Amino acid sequence: MKNEMWSGRFSGASDELLKEFNASLNVDKTLFNEDIQGSIAHATMLESCGILKKEELDAIIKGLEQVKSEIEQGKFVFDIKDEDIHMAIEKRLSEIIGSEIGGRLHTARSRNDQVATDFKLFVKKSHIELLKLLKELIQTMLEHAKVHKKTIMPSFTHLQHAQPVSFSFYILAYAFMLMRDIKRLQNSLELADFSPLGSCACAGTSYATNRELSAEILEFKDIMPNAMDGVSDRDFALDLLYDIAVIFTHTSRLCEEMILFSSSEFSFITISDSFSTGSSIMPQKKNPDVCELIRGKTGRVYGNLISLLTIMKALPLAYNKDMQEDKEGLFDSVKTAKDSLIILNAMLKEIQINKENMLNACKKGHLLATDLADYLVREKNIPFRKAHFIVGNVVAQAEAQGIDISEIKDLSKIDPVFDEKAMELLNFEFSLNSKQSEGSSSIASVEKQIQILEGFIQNL
Ligand code: ARG
Fold it and tell me: Which atom of ligand 1 is nearest to the CA of 28?
């Protein structure tokens, strides 16, 4: 039986197995809204070019709107035999308005430019949604940053104590990563803002169409200038997958630190009960599952990027059915990113900062050693390498006494090069605020950083 829309040249019916294997409906039905939007723009353009009559356009738009509400209300019968969402919608349209008119919608269009357009519209929408969620997460970080300018904690290099910083300074480092994530999305959105609609199969059409018009209706900035590129390009999907992968690089680092910092070894923070889970066997357990899951989900979003890169690699022009495999991973990455950003934000809002524990941790690991060396260079005109050596000796002596250098009562007893004034240095807040370089951990610099981020967010 010849029931497929493309069955004109076929004499036999396609195998049941092939139908199932070939179908993408279960995945691409997500695009129903974009498909209807795209079809209305296309039909409107056809009518304005005299290719469709006004009554035909009206019937098509009315029919498409009915299809949309049937899908929204769950009344639409999805049948895998229709292959994909594009065919399913067109078939239903013809059932509603008759194939004499319904069959005219696909004039001067192919499924190749249709699917590229729908997918691009979805990608553009996802950019906007992610941008908003990133902005909200930055706002939460800024709230913490404003409160904790004087909350002192150790910073780490090699996961060993390095120098004292404030919790504000620490959390702002993440806010700046997210600012770049937003800029990255904005850049990708700009590159994606060209309409492939009207490229047709791969070579354009013999109809005098107006691609600018359909692009304008769909709110694209411009059209893709080459039809073959128009149907073959999936850079816009790769860009979004990469942007999401980088977001997860950042959030997985933050989550890893939240896991560490909430452990009893650190106890820097407490994650609220509403975002922690228990153990089925150990009654005392409170686990940071949200952070672990976000860290774990990083694997699937990296995988989705690699998967599409591999699908597109060495693919001959123009459309190939391989490209039908482009959507599932992207839909998954977008959903994973949206869900993760929402819950991370909610969790972060409620996180408790344990100031005492953070400060106590600063008293281990000789965090003030660099300040002492800088002091010798600045006040005593000693070359930095020599100062480094002198302070190394102070550290060794403190270690021998089993104390931290911040607990030394009289520095001059260890080395006469230190005078009274040097004792001022053995104070964590003093250390923080003695930083003078741009971008440092001093309160003044942190305030400037907050301003930069607030200005950025306001202009979004
Ligand atoms: N379902 C297909 C996809 O997602 C639509 C394009 C089909 N084009 C074709 N020439 N068979 O890629």
Answer: 4
Determine what percent of the chain is predicted with pLDDT higher than 90.
84
354/269 Cα distance (integer angstroms)? 5
The tokens describing 166, both together, are 């404030």
pLDDT tens column, 82-120: 999 999 999 999 999 999 999 999 999 999 999 999 999
Distance 431 CA to ligand 1 centre (A): 63
β-bridge pairing 194-195 and 160-166: unpaired
pLDDT tier at 35 (50, 70, 90 boundaries)?
very high
Q: What was the pLDDT predicted at 1?
A: 42
Phi, psi of 233 (to 5 degrees): -80, 130
Nearest protein CA to atom 11 of ligand 1, as residue: 321
- Report pLDDT digits (tens) over 145-160: 999 999 999 999 999 9
> Cα–Cα distances in Å, from 307 out to 115, 137, 312, 325, 329?
19, 28, 9, 9, 8
Beta carbons of 335 and 127 less than 8 angstroms apart: no
Query: Out of 325-329, 337-341, 366-370, which region has the weakest mean confidence (pLDDT)?
Result: 366-370
Atom 12 in ligand 1: which residue has the minimum CA distance?
Answer: 324
H, E, C per residue of 240-276:
HHHHHHHHHHHHHHHHHHHHHHCCCCCCCEECCHHHC
Strand, helix or coil for residue 53: coil
Positions annotated as catalytic residues are: 158, 279
Distance 321 CA to ligand 1 centre (A): 6
Taking CA atoms only, the protein residue closest to ligand 1 atom 2 is 324
pLDDT tens, position by position, 16-30:
888 899 999 999 999
Nearest alpha carbon to residue 22 among 332, 326, 324: 324
232 SS3 class:
helix
Distance CA(318)–CA(295), nearest Å, equals 37
> Using a 6 Å CB cutoff, which residues line ligand 1?
24, 28, 84, 111-112, 115, 319, 323-324
How close is the Cα of 111 to the center of ligand 1, in Å? Answer: 6
